[in-house]
Amino acid sequence: MTNSAFRRVPNALALAAVMLVAATLLVACGDRGGTEGAPAPGDTAVAKVDGKTVWASDVKREAVAQGLIGEGEPLDVSSDLFRRVLDEVVDQKLLAAEALNRKLDKDPVAQKRLAAARERILGDMLVESVVADAVNDNAIRGLYQEQLKLAKQSEEIRARQIVVATEAEAEAVRKLLATGASFDALAMERSTDAATRFNGGDLGYFTVDVMPEAYAANLKTSKVGDIVGPFGIEGGWAILKIEDRRLEQPITFEAARPQIVRFLTYDQVRDLLEKLRSRAKVQTLIGAPQDVPGQPKEPADAPKTAPQTPATKAAPAASAAPAKAAQP
């Protein structure tokens, strides 16, 4: 398996929600009777439409298709959301039944659309089957451990800051700190940085590489307990107090798990489609698209690299007063 998680997601996965909607439509259009047994153990009958049962699973499937809940999330049958979606499922079944009464399903265009929806549903079921087999707990934990081994632990700093408008104000604050004034109290009283002043200037833990250049330059050689500055920043002057220095904490397995699952899922779907295309004879009968001046271009596929789970981090854009970092 290749580590190309951030390449463009294959259409089969991107169309999952559309497939679920199509599945509901096909069931409604094709339900001319049939068994009244529960589709799955524990399923609950929640309504009848002209004698045909609507199951709790039908309502949950529609809620997932609309993005109201995630796949596998519970949906309480007594909730307002369930009742609202149930009404929509009933309406959908009534519309589909009326379409059958009018023989709209015999229309050639309708038959093509139903056939296309069937293909999407079957493709989605294949994708779910392949992913369920490959994206298991062992694979997820294995990739997590692999990324931990590759991770480079940078040093994190925890600091507090006071930001003021002028150098003279900054020097006055520095003198007050030298006489024993409370840094937290001065931050709340004098700092102009709204994001940190009410927390006593606390920036949380951060790595130097994500900080604006002026901060990074003054923090590199600082020690715990140091008062750093004042130094000029964009929009004012800053004074820092160094609270702690430690090795960066790796991301936990539970926090990394969703991203790893996405990576493994995309990778499996991409590999499946590549194998299917290699065995099939696919002919494109239209010419290549022509460039139109000013037209947005589709982004290129990302390089074949491992996912940025515990190993790497994204650096936020620098600002005059850096955003509050994650707390321990």
What does this structure look like?
- It is elongated, with a radius of gyration of 29 Å.
- With 328 residues, it is α+β, with helices and mostly antiparallel strands.
- The strands form 2 sheets. It has a 4-stranded antiparallel sheet with strand order 4-3-6-5. Strands 1-2 form a two-stranded antiparallel sheet.
- Mean pLDDT is 78; it is low at 1-35, 302-306 and 308-328.
- Helix 3 crosses helix 4.
- Strand 1 and strand 2 (52-55) form a beta hairpin.
- It has 3 domains: 39-106, no CATH class; 108-151 and 250-278, no CATH class; 155-247, Chitinase A, domain 3, CATH 3.10.50.
- The protein has 10 helices and 6 strands; from the N terminus they run ααββααααβααβαββα.
What's the count of strands?
Answer: 6
Helicity, as a percent range: 40-55%
Radius of gyration (CA) equals 29 Å
CATH topology of the largest domain: Chitinase A, domain 3
Morphology: elongated
Give the amount of beta strand, in percent.
Answer: 5-15%
Q: Please identify, by name, the CATH architecture of the largest domain.
A: Roll
Mean residue pLDDT:
78
The largest sheet, given as strand count, sense and whether it forms a barrel, is: 4 strands, antiparallel
Give the ordered list of helices and strands.
Answer: HHEEHHHHEHHEHEEH
Low-confidence stretches: 1-35, 302-306, 308-328
What is the helix tally?
10
State the secondary-structure class.
Answer: alpha+beta
CATH class type of the largest domain: Alpha Beta
Give the termini distance in whole angstroms.
35 Å
Instruction: Please indicate the count of domains.
Output: 3
Strand order of the largest sheet: 4-3-6-5
GO molecular function, one term: peptidyl-prolyl cis-trans isomerase activity
Region (Disordered): 286-328
Catalytic activity: [protein]-peptidylproline (omega=180) = [protein]-peptidylproline (omega=0)
Pfam families: Rotamase
